[in-house]
Design brief:
Elements (H helix, E strand, L loop, with lengths): L1 H19 L17 E2 L3 E5 L3 E3 L2 E2 L7 E4 L5 E3 L4 E4 L3 E9 L2 E10 L8 H15 L1 E2 L4 E9 L2 E8 L4 E10 L2 E8 L6 E8 L3 E8 L11 E4 L7 H26 L15
Length: 269
Amino acid sequence: MKNIKKIGFILCLTLMITTIMPSSFVTETVQAATPKVKLSETKKKISIGESFQLSLKSVKSSKVKWSSTDKQVATVSKSGKVKGKQEGNCVIIAKYKKNNYKCFVTVYEKQDNTVTASDNYSMLYNYVVAHGEDTNAGYKSLTNSFTKDTGAGIIANVDNKTLQFNMVQYVSGVYIVLIMELPRNSKTANISFYIMGQAKGTGTILCTDVSDSMSDLSLVYESTGSFDKVDLNNLATLELQTGMVNWDVILMLNSCGITMKDLGFENNK
């Protein structure tokens, strides 16, 4: 009987020790999870000419075969580099073993939001027509006079949709007139320069960020009087520089948001 009690006590003690034994003494075998294979991108929007890199994760790149459902829209290289060709939609496929992984690609044409001198010309014309004062029939004008002998204006011809930049000075009984016709699609503005009763010249000036110097004014000498060709050219250049300042002030005072530089005259800071 005593032996039976001893055996029962030993069994109970063993059970208690096993129950309270730290888990660190228990070992388990854990099987490593298999890495999930997936494409780095499943949907992409790019512009024509733009590229991006695709990759198949957890797989050696050399074992992946790439293809495009429409090579005219987008192409893909052996390394997974995708390039947009023309507007449209296609699917880039990465094939690994017996599985296909897909990236849906949309290619669009990127819009050019660059504002050109021609755009600003049209904006200024519309502003003058809307806010300018009536001068003669079919003409609207933004004007300003800095002295009693000087007047400058920006005039819109409503009929043929053109702009003229005018300046008149009255010196010792002689009118000096400068007229610049701003180009819409060309890179040269036409210049007319008159000294009443003395001389007359015409010429052009480069604009739309072709030139940064007023010396690009070129005149055609037409009459003699008291001016020779050099004097006429120097005076016309000086008048044009003065006109540029006056016209810029007119634009500033009218708050139309456009400067002479915006119209292509780079030297006019």
